[in-house]
Write a structure and sequence with these properties.
Elements (H helix, E strand, L loop, with lengths): L15 H8 L17 H41 L3 H4 L4 H29 L1 H19 L5 H15 L2 H10 L4 H29 L10 H23 L12 H13 L12 H8 L2 H31 L4 H7 L1 H21 L2 H21 L3 H28 L4 H17 L1 H4 L12 H35 L11 H5 L13
Length: about 500
């Protein structure tokens, strides 16, 4: 077992062997001119804080808004259902579940390639374009007349939305140090929890438009939210920025500072890396891609089951009215949003992302055990709180964990695409486990989600944590030094997270 101090961030506990090895590594900082040469450490720290604050204000809030809109648009079908969608379109329960499933097919299949497109087309073009496209799909869902039309709209919605979440996760990882990324990703992803809260309130308000223009309330949910998405997408052409070396909102000096910060953090985001198929294969042959995918499927499969069906679950507790069920779905999401940001902050400070995953997964397991076993409606409603608090923080934390441990701009992009794509593919399962004939207790649905949390989120996190800890010990002992024998500094740099001095985040 490694001693506790072995894993502490920011502590110079390197052995003489590690220091000798580090001296042979390429020094990336020499590639960038230092605009703050000659300044004291205090002045440098003050400038760095100001720069970080500028990045946070220009990057995180708008991207969080985009994800809020994205998650609202993909899950508001659950709100529309309890306002009469299935009845008005003459759909059976199986057909409704199929409209949920088809979204995840196109969404998951296209996710692995979107990060390459994002890098090549620039975020300021790619993200607004896909947003306008899914806003059009969303609006069309409000005017469909039958099951076939809804299926087509949902398929294209999944295709259009595929690039946002993996794209933004990858994009933010190219701006921040590893120790800063988690809380920003958590703030970004907390928009999903807020979308659950906001979505319930918004749906309850829009549903009151029932009959206006000859359209039912559920139709107006899709139309108004779709039009809002198109407007926000157009504005995004001016509000979404490019990668650090191209960002127009930064002065040349600030761009140099950002690149130096990344270089100091041993990130290839600071370099102008060209795409090669070798990066694609490096991702596919990395065991962390597969453990990350297993962990993420445990969180994401649970997330979609929860977010798509929580209004229905709450509606069945004591047969609440549709509007009251919408409103009661708000507090669990709010609690999840708060914990998501808290876990992001804790994980950044402690660098113990695996333990954070393990801890929150236990909350989710207790929550769904309560939904399965408790008879009291109040206790089961409390279970929805713990369920949300055990799922949402793990999504952002898992993406941060995988990003921290994958080096190389394109390799990281491909890995995140596969991890997120595989996780979202499990939405196909999630959209079919809460069946109408299982109400009001939904034992099969709750049981499947509990299994996902135990086997994949909890179990996968434990396995990856143990394997990373073991690998770090081998690298500190020098067991991996043969990987760089005979290589020049440039070749060593191309190894990315295979470099023997690259220590994984636990």
């Amino acid at each position: 077992m490694a001693t506790a101090i072995d894993e502490k961030p920011g502590v110079d506990n390197a052995s003489d062997h590690e220091k000798d090895l580090g001296s042979a590594m390429p020094e990336k900082l020499t590639n960038f001119e230092d605009p703050d040469a000659g300044l004291s450490d205090e002045e440098r720290a003050r400038i760095d804080r100001q720069l970080l604050w500028k990045l946070d204000l220009r990057l995180v809030p708008w991207l969080s808004l985009l994800y809020l809109v994205s998650f609202l648009d993909r899950t508001n079908i659950g709100n529309a259902k309890i306002d009469g969608l299935a009845t008005d379109l003459g759909m059976t329960a199986d057909q409704y579940n199929a409209t949920l499933t088809i979204f995840f097919v196109s969404y998951s299949v296209f996710e692995p390639v979107t990060n390459v497109l994002l890098k090549r087309l620039r975020p300021s073009i790619f993200i607004p374009c896909i947003m306008v496209a899914w806003g059009i799909c969303m609006t069309c869902m409000g005017v469909v007349k039958n099951y076939s039309g809804l299926m087509a709209a949902r398929w294209f919605l999944g295709l259009a939305e595929a690039g946002l979440f993996p794209g933004v996760g990858y994009f933010l990882s190219c701006w921040y140090k590893r120790s800063e990324f988690g809380v920003r990703m958590a703030i970004f992803f907390s928009a999903a929890a807020l979308a659950g809260s906001f979505g319930g309130l918004l749906a309850a308000a829009i549903a009151k438009m029932d009959g206006i223009g000859g359209k039912p309330g559920w139709s107006w949910i899709f139309i108004l939210e779709g039009l809002a998405t198109i407007v926000i997408g157009v504005i995004s052409f001016w509000c979404v920025h490019d990668f650090p070396d191209q960002a127009k909102f930064l002065s040349p000096e600030d761009r140099a500072r950002v690149l130096r910060r990344l270089a100091a953090d041993q990130q290839s985001s600071a370099e102008h890396e060209e795409f090669k198929m070798s990066y694609f294969w490096a991702s596919l042959t990395d065991w962390k891609t597969y453990t990350g995918a297993i962990i993420y499927m445990g969180a994401d499969g649970s997330l979609y089951a929860f977010s798509l069906f929580v209004p229905t679950i709450i509606n069945e507790l004591v047969s609440y009215s549709a509007i009251r069920a919408q409103l009661l779905s708000v507090p669990p999401y709010a609690a999840a949003a708060i914990l998501t940001i808290t876990i992001g902050f804790i994980a950044d400070r402690t660098r113990q992302r695996g333990l954070c995953n393990i801890g929150v997964s236990l909350l989710g397991m207790v929550g769904f055990a309560m939904l399965l076993g408790c008879e009291s409606p109040g206790a089961r409603y409390a279970g929805t709180f713990l369920g949300a608090m055990g799922i949402y923080p793990a999504i952002a934390n898992t993406i941060s964990w995988s990003s921290n441990n994958t080096e190389g701009v394109y390799k990281r992009g491909v890995s995140l695409g596969f991890i997120i794509g595989w996780g979202n593919l499990n939405g196909i399962v999630s959209s079919n486990i809460y069946r109408a004939n299982d109400k009001p207790r939904y034992y099969p649905g709750h049981g499947v989600v509990l299994a996902y949390l135990v086997l994949f989120l909890f179990g996968g996190s434990v396995v990856q944590y143990v394997l990373l800890r073991r690998e770090n010990r081998k690298r500190r002992r020098g067991d991996r030094d043969q990987w760089i024998a005979g290589l020049d500094p440039g070749q060593i740099e191309l190894l990315g997270d295979k470099r023997p001095d690259f220590i994984y985040t636990l």
